[in-house]
Amino acid sequence: MKLKNKIVLLTGAASGIGRSTAIFFAKEGAIQILADINQEGGEETVKLIKKEAPDAKAEFINLDVSKSGDVAETIEKILKKYGRIDVLINNAGVVRVGLPEEFTEEDYDLLINVNLKGTFFCCKYAIPYFKKQKSGVIVNLASVAGHIGQVNHANYCSTKAGVLGMTRALALDLAPFNVRVNSVSPGATDTPMLRSDVAKNARERGVDFEVVKKEFEEEGLFGRWAKPIEVAKAILFLASDDSSYMTGADILVDGGWVAR
After folding, report:
1. I need a surface site. Which of 42, 48, 134, 225 has the fewest CB within 10 A?
2. Helices 68-82 and 119-133, packing angle to 10 deg
3. Which residues pair with 88 in a beta bridge?
4. Strand, helix or coil at 67?
């Protein structure tokens, strides 16, 4: 087991990549604190873990990563209960798309508050303990959108490019403390978030959902969306000792999208 008895805080655990990662980590022996703003979805993830890995230890906490005080309190509770944090997976994220001249400040604030500040807050409050322990791993979820431009995605792309920059900078800050910081950049992955993005795009263009879905599928070289587990496997690699000499790096799980 690659994560046996490792204390893992995983945000955005209620669905998609987060849920798949939580189940995968459970089978690898992790002791998980699963966080999300979606109470029902988070509790369902815990149920699925108990079904697929009956001996695994996992609990759900309701957390809005955009609220600094709530993140600080959550980290403190974890440390009080477990005495340490070994792995932080910053997976919580949202997507909003639209023409830049029509994009609302409210939507941009949401993207920044969750995707960028939420990632930062979790790092900010975990870092003092990582430094004290002289060990720890942070894996941030970026996106193919942080590497390339996408039509009507200027605001979303900017937050994910920010995550990539933050990851590299934190790697420099934390290397002296034996703390590794890396990121994973998924391409089009079959999650509720992507499906909502595609549905909105289809409605605005007045075309069928399957038309837009096919366009996204053809961005990669394999002509399909990734399965969440395919991204989860990259996250596990970075979270485990298999990547012990990696920091400040990003793994693209994009089906060759950027290679074009």
Report:
1. 134
2. 30
3. 9, 138
4. coil
Residue 107 lies in a domain: yes
Phi, psi torsion values for 214, nearest 5 degrees: -65, -40
Residues in the chain: 260
Closest CA to 216 of 255, 181, 184, 244: 255
Q: Which residues are catalytic, by number?
A: 156
Residue 214 counted as domain residue: no
Q: What is the pLDDT of residues 233-255, one digit of tens each?
A: 999 999 999 999 999 999 999 99
Asked, for residue 14, whether it belongs to a domain, the answer is yes
Please indicate, yes or no, whether the overall pTM of this predicted structure exceeds 0.90: yes
Residue from 93, 55, 78 nearest 8 by CA: 78
By percentage, how much of the chain surpasses pLDDT 70? Answer: 100
Q: Does 119 score more than 90 pLDDT? A: yes
